[in-house]
Amino acid sequence: MKITSRLKAVANLVGECKILADIGTDHCYIPIYLLKKGKTNNAIASDINEGPLQAAEETVKKNNLNEKVSIRLGNGLAPLKENDFIDVIVIAGMGGETIVNILENIPCHLTKCRYILQPMTDISLVRKWLDEKSYKITNEEIAKEVNRYYTVIEAQHQSNAPKLSEIETQFGPVLLKKKHPLLKEYIVKRRNKNIEVFSQIQKIECETLKRDKNRTLRREKDLLEEVLRWL
């Protein structure tokens, strides 16, 4: 089964597990890919909307995996029960704020799971939440599709998890440590976007708003250039 670079990066960080849960599964591509690769024994695919679940059911049926995949309707982690014995949870293809809202409601029986997160926006917000809640980022990956970059985070709860610095929160502790081959071009793109937005902000008439946005953009630019010098 062929999947996109983004989904493959997610699947690679899942690695091997016994029971996988894919939250916001859409077409159920990740569970099916991992089942076909023999990386997981069973999967739960859930979504808050019936439309994506119907698409998921069709994909599962087409691949003759009905006995291996449980399709469930529900919000966030609510469809996952204590007797499911899940070891890995994937939350991918959503905004960072949505992912954080889902993580805020982790039930006790899912705290020890390994989480694979792929935020489409607000990546630093997700890392900040993980840091504050003592989830250690154990691995990270970047995937590129055309001109867009996608970051994937693997995290697991650890009571003595090391705290993240500002730079690590922004750009990823593991990505920085291993100097990921796509990290430099991703940061260059962010820097160029920063310069473009800074230029647009100067047209704002409200001086207070302009001053606040300029301060934020200058700080981001300083961090971007500091990382680029190191890379």
From TrEMBL:
<dbReference type="Pfam" id="PF04816">
    <property type="entry name" value="TrmK"/>
</dbReference>
<keyword id="KW-0808">Transferase</keyword>
<dbReference type="InterPro" id="IPR006901">
    <property type="entry name" value="TrmK"/>
</dbReference>
<dbReference type="InterPro" id="IPR029063">
    <property type="entry name" value="SAM-dependent_MTases_sf"/>
</dbReference>
<dbReference type="GO" id="GO:0032259">
    <property type="term" value="P:methylation"/>
</dbReference>
<protein>
    <submittedName>
        <fullName>Class I SAM-dependent methyltransferase</fullName>
        <ecNumber>2.1.1.-</ecNumber>
    </submittedName>
</protein>
<keyword id="KW-0489">Methyltransferase</keyword>
<dbReference type="GO" id="GO:0160105">
    <property type="term" value="F:tRNA (adenine(22)-N1)-methyltransferase activity"/>
</dbReference>
